[in-house]
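Objective 1.3, modelling of assemblies. Example input:
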Amino acid sequence: MTNDITMELAPLFNPRSVAVIGASNNWSKWGFSTFTSVLNGFKGKVYPVNKSEEIVVGRRAYKTILDVPDDEPVDLAIFVIPAPAIPKVMEDCVKKGVKAGVIISAGFAETGKEGRKLQDEVLRIAQRGNLRFIGPNCMGYYSASSNLRAFMFPIPILSGPIGFVTQGGNVGGAVVGAATNRNIGFHRYISCGCTADIQIEEYIECFGDDPEIKIILAYIEGLNDGERFVEKVSKVTKKKPVIALKPGRTTAAAEAILSHSGAIAGSSDIWDSAFKKAGVIRAESPDELLDIAVGFLTQPLPGGKNVAIMTPGGSYGVLCADACASLGLNVVKLSDETIATFDKIFPPRWSHGNPVDPAGDRNFTAYLKAPEMLLKLDEVDSLIFMGFDGFSSFPSLVSSMNHKFSRMFKKMLTPLIGIEKVKKKDSSSDGASQTSRINKFIHSLLFIFFSVFGTSKKEEVEDFARQLTSLITSEFVDPSILYTFSQLVNVADLNDIDDQMVERLLDSFQPLLEALIIKWMHEHKKPIITTNFTEEPTSLKGGTFYSFSSGKKAALVLSKLVEYSEYLKRG
Amino acid sequence: MTNDITMELAPLFNPRSVAVIGASNNWSKWGFSTFTSVLNGFKGKVYPVNKSEEIVVGRRAYKTILDVPDDEPVDLAIFVIPAPAIPKVMEDCVKKGVKAGVIISAGFAETGKEGRKLQDEVLRIAQRGNLRFIGPNCMGYYSASSNLRAFMFPIPILSGPIGFVTQGGNVGGAVVGAATNRNIGFHRYISCGCTADIQIEEYIECFGDDPEIKIILAYIEGLNDGERFVEKVSKVTKKKPVIALKPGRTTAAAEAILSHSGAIAGSSDIWDSAFKKAGVIRAESPDELLDIAVGFLTQPLPGGKNVAIMTPGGSYGVLCADACASLGLNVVKLSDETIATFDKIFPPRWSHGNPVDPAGDRNFTAYLKAPEMLLKLDEVDSLIFMGFDGFSSFPSLVSSMNHKFSRMFKKMLTPLIGIEKVKKKDSSSDGASQTSRINKFIHSLLFIFFSVFGTSKKEEVEDFARQLTSLITSEFVDPSILYTFSQLVNVADLNDIDDQMVERLLDSFQPLLEALIIKWMHEHKKPIITTNFTEEPTSLKGGTFYSFSSGKKAALVLSKLVEYSEYLKRG
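Predicted structure (tokens):
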């Protein structure tokens, strides 16, 4: 069932035509950068409105919106003119039949009594004309469905499954920038400013209806009607997760909020209980907001709070266990029976508990066997798999070794020279021969990989090769990987193998191992949160794989998945 | 006064020669990677010791260390052999006159009773021979003064002013990796493992003596003698800051610690009070450890806890003020007098308080005037200057604009075409003419910059140009910047100006503005902590400039500077 609000906001998100009121040729004005931002992508008609210029950035300009010919309707107006001029222009927009607006201009409620009066006046005019608007005092918005970037200056943004409303343009911009950097996209992004007309809960309600939106994010400084928020948002959170960043735990912040968005911050405890009631998940910083979003995008919901931790090093495990327990997760105790099964694959010095730490064992196949053993246990609801996304760090290790080592390493690639070229999935060849060729190829690669990075028994390597071979023709792997492999080894002699190729060869294992994780996740229907060795945020791959930069972040994300899962269970 | 410990550990940090016991040709052994790690950089003699091989990685190997000729002394032994073999080999080392060691091998106290017995035996033998050693169960160590990388596998590490001891090799490796990524280096880095012989407080004592070390970092799971730690470390913290990460707030972590390093975690409250007594600053995560270190490396100590915040956007300011107040800093209230002075440079919509937010004003010279106005106030002890390090994000904005805009932007560069080439500081030219040429050049650049990114009055731009001109010939700027500028504009016509040049031109302002910050910091002797728009960690520049990725991090770092400053004042 679609709510009224979705119908009402349709002209905002899918306008046929747009007027930029205050569009300018003057580079130093927001009216210039807003206009060029809209031009960059929107396919409908765009009208510059400017009192004094005839042409704006090469387009015919209109003195007022009423000068746009009657047979050319304007669905949306973007206001980038001084606040005092807006009531009159809003009247014109209503006359013209404009259905939606965004007021970027500042100088309203956030400046005090006079500003609030002006804001109320603008609101009355718009309401009389059934014109719904974003703002004032905002940075604009993005709608993927119409490729509209109605921003006060162009910011890079990707299309994707997130709906995001923010009361702070800068915080919003920082989150969008970080998301772009992580290859995460938005279906709607709204800098809502002073929320004179459309309220935060209305955006969220509308996002709740939209099948393109999977996750909803919000940065909230204050609300006009807390009860209405709880009532509307609690319906949305039954369908999809809503994650909110709400500053204002301190008086200093409350004062800053008042002067920024003109909102009353309210006590943080009240917010906590309102969020709890509405099923909203609270984040404490912009990067937490994004981390939690990625968690929900890539993971199934856990059945409970029992977590197992796999770590390549003791201290990683210590920090992660500490973070998990602090956040109310249960670092599950392993049974004697389980410990006995790990005794069979790990050396005697392994940690004999959870976190599972093989303590520097170099048997890589055992390290990749252990996660499945844990996932199969009924008492384990989720797995944090640490230090996993680190294969891309091996090349730098290789190149940091001395020259002699580097040469020896290349020599190890000799068995791959002249290997039969494996082509991209070829319908003309029969399945059996293809599988055998792939198996041979993977086997050669694994042989090299394990000689350098781990000792494994021959039958274990073969078993692992079979696993990867079956994976490579499964739904979890992009078949183009075969082509990449064959390209890599299509060399005539040793001298053709350079550092770059060694790097690419090692890197090429990463997607295969990622696919393995995704496969486990699908089979066991439990979250598997991976972490890497670096503090830099990584990229979301294929919309399904993401690796966090620390056990602490993994623990946080998992705790929020548990929180939401428990909320849904309570019904 | 140098402590005994510094004399005792001299052979560890500056050995003339090194034996790697267990050095191997077998790629899958730690003995191989450890040996190649040592070979990579260390200039003294390196002896591989291997029971069965004659040659290891091209070097003559010895069956035991006693087979090394008598007239060739060995200062340091690195052990990469199974634990049970170590007592006998340690005996040999003592006989040979080895003075220091590092036992990388695991299988000691961390594995239980038997392991502890073995560890005690090794310790007795070493002590009888006055051989001091790191470990066991560690990842090795780095000494910049002898360029020695005694690691179990090569990790990239830079030379620099930090002394770091870690009880967790993986956490240590992650911190070192992140530091390298941020261009931060170490004078000593020690993975200390089970600390059978040399204790954490001894490393810290030794770091305290070393004039090359400015900041001391530690990751601690447990201590053998807490009182001794407090006694020794409290002497060091009078001289330089010691920052420690200590996990184990939860039972889950305490259990993980026991199985990892064999240490007793102890209650977190006891740690808090011990750290407080010793003047140790506590960090809560690896990235906090590094953030705080960078803070101490680049900032003077604040006189008190009154902070002013400059922000380019309201919500940034809200989050930062919230973080500051939560951490006990005082977001200082501005006097009416101060507010009146800001009224003169900002539009009426500015925040009228702290955080100081010009609310989207595009007058860039005003934005750069405000920090000095705040720094001059007696009631302000420090400044958080937000969204400063963001000029490198402008190029991506430019290129994301449509083609038409891009062409117009290039046209604006026309005044710079054919401008007189400014050479690197040239002693033959007289000072006055040089200054005039620089001024002309800077002025042209500023004209372009402000036309695009802000409106400023002509006299303000000229005033600002004079400031930058005087800066450019000061100690705060690398004079090569002039050469960069002249290269950038040494083009014959408009077609030579491509996107890359526009990017470099905008980027070239960044070092000038950084120098301005450093100059203010020197003049006012107050911390100025800058933040940028991205969540990626940035690089330490010239050892003096660093920009944090959020107001939250800036607040944390500042709170620790205040904590240390107050500790020193208490005396």
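The CA atoms of residues 179 and 185 of chain B lie 7 Å apart.
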